[in-house]
Amino acid sequence: MDRSLPLARLFRLASSKAWATFFANPLSVLGLIIVLVILVLSVFAGVLTPYPEHVGPVGDFSAMNAPPDGAYWFGTDTMGRDLLTRIVYGYQLALIMAAVVLSIATPVGVVVGLVAGYKGGWVDYALMRITDIFLAVPPLVLAMAIMGFLQPTLMNGMLAITAMWWPWYARLVYNVTRAETQEGYVLAAETVGASTAHIVFREILPNCMPSIVTKMTLDVGFVILMASSLSFLGLGVQPPTPDLGSMVAEGAKYMPSSWWLTVWPAVAILVVVLGFNLLGDGLREAFEAEG
Amino acid sequence: MTEPVLAIRDLELTFGRWRRSKVLHGVSLHVRAGEKVALVGESGSGKSVTARLAMGLLQETGNVDVAGSIRVDGVEAAAGGRQIRRLRGRRVAMIFQDPTSALNPAFRIRGQFREVLRTAEPGLSDREADARAEAALAEVSIPDPARALNSYAFQLSGGMNQRVMIAMALANRPSLLIADEPGTALDVTVQAQTLELMRDLAATRGTAVLLISHNLGVVREFADRVYVIYRGRIVEHARTAQLFSDPRHPYTRALLAAIPKISGGGLPDLPERSPDFENPRIVHEGCAEPWELRP
Amino acid sequence: MSEPILEFDNLGKTFEADGSRVVALDDVSLAFERRGCHAIVGESGSGKTTLANLVLGLIRPTGGGIRFNGVPLPGERGIEHRRAIQLVQQNPLSALNPRRSVGASVRLPLDVHGIGTSSERPARVAALLEEVGLEAAHARRSPRGLSGGQRQRVAIARALACEPELIVLDEPTSALDVLVQARVLQLLEHLRRERGLTYLFITHDLAVVRAVATTVSVFQRGRLVESGGVEEIFAAPRNDYTRQLIGAVPVVTEAEARLRETIRAGAPPTPGAG
């Protein structure tokens, strides 16, 4: 009766009041729509984009650096590649990166936060001081340092971002856990004789899920932004892979005459970050209404 | 007869914009100067929201729909607004369940007391304010007022904080004091002291006191008159002696029977809810609302 | 007389932090009969919560010891004690995990202690809920949707799931309305008789003590000041502090008011005053 995943249970037990609050806010719904559209575009990029072959190094040499028109809605780049196609594939890559980073950073941070928050004492002290060390280094500097002595590949980019992302989850979950540990249901589980693993993962963790889900949603946008910043600095994904940050950096050389080269990828970053932020804020509001 | 200090007439309250829930269905009550009146009911009965409406606090949150009339010291307060806000802290004061959380832990009592006194008299000098604060604290039997003024709330005991709260509430000589479950967060002995203090003030200064409580025992010892409220409706209104010697409403009877007695006897078999509890209001002899007396 | 279920031998607990010492419990010796409802009474700072935590094994004594069924606590039979001594807390909202169903909360002790087979457990959960006056269908509900009284019933069902011998009741009805309190107290009384349970009833409400307890022990600042049968103590309290506590109880009937006056006066009450 209680074997489902915490996330599934979260949605089952989230009251209808929470969902009513979410859908009552037009901005939250807009965020949800943006995110869904980007997800669908990324998943079915091969079918939905007009020129999937333009993902590689070669484009349409007869239409190089063409402004937006009927054939190329967003124009083409200096290699004659369709910008719209490359932006959609840029989304696909950005989402994969965000998914990989968060699916590593979140569990690590969550476990550290849960254990430190529930156990207290020297475990708390040791784990949270390590976390603080990571938090004290500016994220971009840490990522640049890592990228500086590693090869600037996609894998290393994700590694660098992951290394600077988990401490935020540790901190967040630690604070929630500290508060939840004072609740009577934790004492009840202890007096019943439940194991530490049960108390931490089955009693406390479900109560951290609203905070974690909200932060993850907001973070998809921020991870994309961070990845784009690294690419913009030339430390991220290398050509010819379509990457939103590199596209902005590359296009900036041709401003203002070939404005579309920079503006569309920049707008694309803006839209995805905005979408995930609106969705995250909407979720936070909904969870708070639930009380 | 003069107008009551607090007169609430046919008060209705509805919460929410989309999912509306009505919590008060026409509550009427009044308190005269020098009178100690209790509004007694269980959680969710609407007793605390009635107090908050009378203070004009609930109207400020928005999201509420108020009908009927609340006259506080001659001012219409049902709609809230600036007039009732100006009365608050001066002519009308409130004391709460937990005094420690009602005082700001970051400031000394002295500063908070000055602020309270200045809501009534904005130009009051520090020295004059402190002198009045010390006098007010001495009046509630705080042994060393100067030291209490220099303390933070967390440095004082629960009983001391309760006294400080009462001294603040009464510093501007309000004509109406609303006490919402005063001291229930504290020990029985402190609670008894609080009631003793409020009783004195009603007697010596003619302050009208409205006590909000769930505890019929406290009500019996404190109040002159009692209103029993159940799910947003007044179900019985009587003088205290009448109510306890001759409870007539099924709900009041159930409440009195359900309270454990120090004289012993087991617990009766009573329902938590019953349609009888929603029977019409019973008003004892001589307890009609003032406006009901006139044709 | 049978062997006491619970005994305190010169039990003491001193908390030390940053050089300051607080004596929470000082040299307490008591024995509790099986199947009784034993009230522990005192105001805040009396040490009654420390006592509960010691019995539950959440903290260790700094002096003396506790014996449960004659065996020192906490013993080698740690997990067995954990099962046999259960707790019902004051705040039923906090005591139930808001993100787990009622059924999951009641089932937890069955899983932890391997009570029944996995396939039998849903039926056991249903039976427990019915025993405390709820319905089997409540198992699928979230505690959010329940009233205070219903939540406290769930907490009682969870304690019963352990098949305990002793339940520590920590102000179990002080957060409830009067009519709900009466029903919950009746339920506790019924369960004690049916299941042969022993209660350690921690409370500040002396009227509740009079209604349900068999013995009462009064604590003041960590010391036991008076202990005995409820009838005797309410008829003639010997200690001044006990008299003061009973004298401060707000009462609702004439009979109570008369009894209280005689107790305040310190003279034995006239027969029939109760």
Automatic annotation (TrEMBL), chain A:
Transmembrane annotation, as ranges: 21-48, 89-118, 130-150, 156-174, 218-237, 257-279
UniProt entry tagged with the keyword DNA-binding: no
Membrane topology: Multi-pass membrane protein
Domain ABC transmembrane type-1: 91-280
GO biological process terms held by the UniProt record: peptide transport; protein transport; transmembrane transport
GO cellular component terms listed in the entry, alphabetical order: plasma membrane
Keywords associated with the record: Cell membrane, Membrane, Peptide transport, Protein transport, Transmembrane, Transmembrane helix, Transport
PROSITE patterns in alphabetical order: ABC_TM1
Database matches in InterPro entries: BP-dependent_transpt_permease, MetI-like, MetI-like_sf, OppC_N
Subcellular location: Cell membrane
Classification via Pfam families: BPD_transp_1 (PF00528), OppC_N (PF12911)
Family designation: Belongs to the binding-protein-dependent transport system permease family.
Protein name, UniProt field: D-ala-D-ala transporter subunit
UniProtKB/TrEMBL annotation, chain B:
Cellular location(s): Cell inner membrane
Signal peptide as annotated in the record: none
A cellular-component GO term for this protein: plasma membrane
UniProt source species: Pleomorphomonas carboxyditropha
SMART domains: AAA
Record-stated family: Belongs to the ABC transporter superfamily.
Topology relative to the membrane: Peripheral membrane protein
Pfam families (UniProt xref): ABC_tran, oligo_HPY
Primary localization class, coarse: membrane
Protein name, UniProt field: Dipeptide/oligopeptide/nickel ABC transporter ATP-binding protein
Classification of source organism: Bacteria, Pseudomonadati, Pseudomonadota, Alphaproteobacteria, Hyphomicrobiales
Keywords for this protein: ATP-binding, Cell membrane, Membrane, Nucleotide-binding, Transport
One Gene Ontology MF term: ATP binding
Domain ABC transporter residues, every copy: 8-256
GO biological process, one term: peptide transport
Domain of life: Bacteria
UniProt xrefs under InterPro entries: AAA+_ATPase, ABC_Ni/Peptide_Import, ABC_transporter-like_ATP-bd, Oligopep_ABC_C, P-loop_NTPase
TrEMBL record, chain C:
InterPro entries in the record: AAA+_ATPase (IPR003593), ABC_transp_ATP-bind (IPR050319), ABC_transporter-like_ATP-bd (IPR003439), ABC_transporter-like_CS (IPR017871), P-loop_NTPase (IPR027417)
GO function terms (MF aspect): ATP binding; ATP hydrolysis activity
ABC transporter domain span: 6-246
Record-level GO BP terms: transmembrane transport
Keyword Cytoplasm set for record: no
Keyword field: ATP-binding, Nucleotide-binding, Transport
Coiled-coil region(s): none
Protein family according to the UniProt entry: Belongs to the ABC transporter superfamily.
Protein name: Peptide ABC transporter ATP-binding protein
Protein source organism: Pleomorphomonas carboxyditropha
